[in-house]
């Protein structure tokens, strides 16, 4: 391919500054979008650009030996442990001295243009160091510093790949580094492989791609925000989000697996794809719109159910049409959310901004479903289910705001603060339960005393709990007064102690923790936004075919297609599954095909219109047009000859016609002086 240029390591390092200025100052995907005919890479091209062994034919090897993933992981671990044995902070590691003595030597030693697994191996070590710091109290701070070094080295190696490989081929190479699957036990001894994987969860067959993980997934899991915020990573994340880079995602377990075909990382060209391309349903940008549409339907059915909950002539003994539609559609939506959790695991899913809202609504809907089923089976006239369902209103309306503004820093901070708030509140409730039990037992001992007579209005455990809750929030001091009835001294003492610890100490600590969390997020707002965007992108690419069926058709697919998969062969099942998916999603797939084809056509029209605008109507058009195309070859040769020499080289400034040579300066005679040539100055 003419546009796919490769560089040897010597040329790459020698031309790094030139590549940086040419690649980073321009839109890395502009050529991909404006020239879609040249944007399609076949599987052979992908395999050629993704070779991981220097001895493969057709690749320009660096001459360095490419180690297996297993060996590289342990090599990096030994190097990092040797280099870092003190608890350095991030600012210290990014200082010039530490950068020159630690980070840069590791980058120079580990960077190999032919090895695409280095970033993955560094992030795997970062995950392990972060987990070890919680188990090894003595080396906790040291392991955090080692994990930080792994992230910094990974970010710099990824930047080198980005600088040395510009254009479309560079985008494809970066995508293979970040979203291709790697096996941590690649080329490991068979005894170690058997022993280490004997007790692991059995995985589904994926045609040789089992147990593989992506570097981007490890970056999200370890919260490597420096790496994710880098230009190279964001270039890939943006391309995956918009569907320019497509690949078959990897997951541990799929509810409705269909792994007959595995598509490698490639660049997508819409006009060469099929009209009903069912794989576009897993493009994150389109997937988010589809899921938002599904949630809008759920919210509309919920509102209709609540508005007509009393309009059923049979009372609560039968379900109305809106309630039945809501219950069925929501069951399919819950299945979709459960599949999303299983897809990448809870650790990754919890990074989503609205994950805690979804889990809360699922719990409410589960309680509603069980209670409502009991009411319908027993034909009860009482109604407990619908009042429980009303508590979902603040959850659903809040989630709409999170969906519409996922990049808003306020919602990002709210997500992190909510996590800290729930953790600290659980600890406080667990500890303060002792005060409730103490007051209840104090009341019981007083009640059993023969010298005390109680009336019918004696407080129960719920009333005592309400008193403590009011004291906690500083709303009412009735509990402090009434506890004197339990014991003149001990009752008020327990209540006042609870007020000091709960209302004063706990709330002060809570405010301090939330303030610290909010300030950290605001200090690094750009990286936080980019990290959440990467999470949203990674979660949007699905491998489970259950996501291709919209609710409530996914439940029908689970009941029919899953048993069918056990009966038919993989090839026949794949054909039937794809046909059913296309039939169910015909309107959506047609809209996607029309949108993508018109977008590519309109982009070319906008480019031509923008150029005409610069030429004709804008007084600043020349300033922009002078950078729109590469200078001619003769100009580049002149610049390399003049700027690339030593001290004795001449430096010609083309526009002024001035040549500086040695200590003298010669100026070209202007045309107004009636001559040409040079004069000394």
Automatic annotation (TrEMBL):
<dbReference type="InterPro" id="IPR052971">
    <property type="entry name" value="TRP_calcium_channel"/>
</dbReference>
<dbReference type="Pfam" id="PF23190">
    <property type="entry name" value="LHD_TRPY1"/>
</dbReference>
<feature type="transmembrane region" description="Helical">
    <location>
        <begin position="423"/>
        <end position="443"/>
    </location>
</feature>
<feature type="compositionally biased region" description="Acidic residues">
    <location>
        <begin position="26"/>
        <end position="36"/>
    </location>
</feature>
<feature type="domain" description="Calcium channel YVC1-like C-terminal transmembrane">
    <location>
        <begin position="295"/>
        <end position="598"/>
    </location>
</feature>
<feature type="compositionally biased region" description="Basic and acidic residues">
    <location>
        <begin position="7"/>
        <end position="25"/>
    </location>
</feature>
<feature type="transmembrane region" description="Helical">
    <location>
        <begin position="572"/>
        <end position="595"/>
    </location>
</feature>
<feature type="transmembrane region" description="Helical">
    <location>
        <begin position="353"/>
        <end position="371"/>
    </location>
</feature>
<dbReference type="InterPro" id="IPR056336">
    <property type="entry name" value="YVC1_C"/>
</dbReference>
<dbReference type="InterPro" id="IPR056337">
    <property type="entry name" value="LHD_YVC1"/>
</dbReference>
<feature type="region of interest" description="Disordered">
    <location>
        <begin position="662"/>
        <end position="681"/>
    </location>
</feature>
<feature type="compositionally biased region" description="Gly residues">
    <location>
        <begin position="671"/>
        <end position="681"/>
    </location>
</feature>
<dbReference type="Pfam" id="PF23317">
    <property type="entry name" value="YVC1_C"/>
</dbReference>
<keyword id="KW-0812">Transmembrane</keyword>
<keyword id="KW-0472">Membrane</keyword>
<feature type="transmembrane region" description="Helical">
    <location>
        <begin position="494"/>
        <end position="514"/>
    </location>
</feature>
<feature type="transmembrane region" description="Helical">
    <location>
        <begin position="546"/>
        <end position="566"/>
    </location>
</feature>
<keyword id="KW-1133">Transmembrane helix</keyword>
<feature type="transmembrane region" description="Helical">
    <location>
        <begin position="289"/>
        <end position="307"/>
    </location>
</feature>
<feature type="region of interest" description="Disordered">
    <location>
        <begin position="1"/>
        <end position="64"/>
    </location>
</feature>
<feature type="transmembrane region" description="Helical">
    <location>
        <begin position="319"/>
        <end position="341"/>
    </location>
</feature>
<protein>
    <recommendedName>
        <fullName>Calcium channel YVC1</fullName>
    </recommendedName>
</protein>
<feature type="domain" description="YVC1 N-terminal linker helical">
    <location>
        <begin position="72"/>
        <end position="258"/>
    </location>
</feature>
């Amino acid at each position: 391919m003419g546009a796919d240029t490769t560089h040897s390591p010597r040329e790459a390092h020698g031309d790094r500054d030139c590549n940086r200025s040419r690649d980073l100052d321009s839109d890395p995907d502009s050529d991909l979008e404006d020239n879609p005919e040249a944007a399609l890479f076949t599987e052979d091209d992908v395999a050629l650009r993704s070779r991981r062994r220097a001895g493969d034919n057709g690749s320009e090897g660096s001459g360095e030996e490419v180690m297996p993933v297993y060996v590289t992981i342990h090599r990096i671990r030994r190097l990092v442990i040797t280099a870092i044995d003190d608890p350095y902070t991030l600012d210290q590691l990014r200082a010039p001295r530490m950068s020159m003595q630690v980070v840069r030597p590791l980058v120079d030693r580990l960077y190999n243009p032919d090895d695409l697994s280095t970033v993955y191996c560094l992030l795997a070590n970062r995950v392990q160091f972060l987990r070890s710091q919680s188990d090894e109290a003595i080396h906790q701070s040291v392991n955090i510093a080692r994990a930080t070094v792994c992230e910094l080295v990974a970010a710099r190696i990824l930047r080198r790949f980005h600088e040395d490989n510009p254009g479309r081929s560079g985008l494809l190479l970066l995508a293979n580094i970040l979203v291709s699957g790697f096996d941590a036990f690649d080329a490991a001894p068979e005894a170690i492989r058997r022993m280490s994987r004997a007790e692991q969860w059995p995985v589904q067959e994926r045609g040789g791609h089992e147990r593989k993980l992506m570097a981007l997934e490890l970056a999200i899991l370890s919260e490597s925000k420096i790496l994710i915020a880098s230009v190279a990573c964001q270039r890939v994340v943006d391309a995956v989000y918009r569907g320019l880079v497509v690949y078959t995602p990897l997951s541990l377990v799929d509810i409705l697996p269909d792994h007959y075909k595995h598509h490698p990382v490639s660049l997508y060209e819409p006009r060469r794809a099929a009209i009903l391309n069912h794989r576009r349903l897993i493009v994150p940008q389109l997937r988010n719109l589809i899921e938002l549409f599904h949630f809008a339907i759920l919210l509309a059915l919920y509102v209709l159910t609540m508005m007509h909950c009393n309009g059923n002539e049979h009372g609560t003994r039968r379900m109305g049409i809106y309630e039945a539609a809501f219950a069925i559609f929501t069951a399919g939506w819950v299945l979709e959310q459960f599949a999303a959790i299983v897809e990448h695991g809870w650790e990754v899913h919890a990074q989503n901004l609205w994950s805690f809202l979804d889990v809360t609504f699922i719990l409410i809907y589960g309680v509603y479903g069980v209670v409502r089923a009991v009411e319908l089976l027993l034909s009860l006239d009482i109604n407990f289910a619908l009042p429980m369902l009303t508590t979902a209103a603040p959850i659903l309306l809040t989630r709409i705001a999170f969906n519409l503004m996922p990049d808003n820093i306020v919602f990002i901070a709210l997500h992190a603060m909510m996590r800290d708030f729930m953790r600290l509140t659980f600890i406080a409730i667990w500890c303060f339960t002792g005060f409730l039990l103490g007051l209840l037992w104090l009341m019981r001992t007083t009640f059993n005393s023969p010298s005390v007579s109680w009336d019918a209005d004696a407080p129960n455990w719920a009333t005592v709990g309400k008193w403590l809750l009011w004291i906690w929030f500083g709303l009412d001091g009735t509990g402090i007064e009434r506890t004197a009835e339990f014991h003149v001294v001990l009752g008020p003492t327990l209540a006042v102690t609870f007020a000091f610890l709960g209302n004063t100490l706990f709330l002060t600590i809570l405010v301090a923790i939330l303030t610290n969390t909010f300030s950290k997020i605001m200090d690094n707002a750009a990286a936080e936004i980019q990290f959440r965007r990467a999470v949203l992108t990674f979660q949007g690419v699905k491998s489970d075919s259950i996501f291709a069926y919209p609710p409530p058709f996914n439940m029908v697919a689970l009941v029919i297609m899953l048993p069918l998969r056990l009966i038919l062969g993989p090839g026949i099942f794949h054909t039937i599954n794809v046909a059913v998916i296309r039939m169910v999603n015909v309107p959506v797939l047609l809209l996607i095909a029309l949108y993508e084809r018109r977008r590519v056509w309109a982009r070319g029209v906008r480019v031509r219109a923008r150029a005409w605008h610069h030429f004709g109507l804008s007084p600043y058009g020349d300033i922009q047009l002078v950078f729109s195309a590469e200078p001619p070859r003769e100009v580049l040769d002149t610049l390399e000859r003049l700027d690339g020499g030593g001290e004795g080289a001449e430096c010609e400034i083309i526009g002024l016609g001035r040549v500086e040579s040695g200590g003298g300066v010669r100026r070209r005679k202007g045309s107004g002086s009636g001559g040409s040539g040079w004069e000394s100055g």
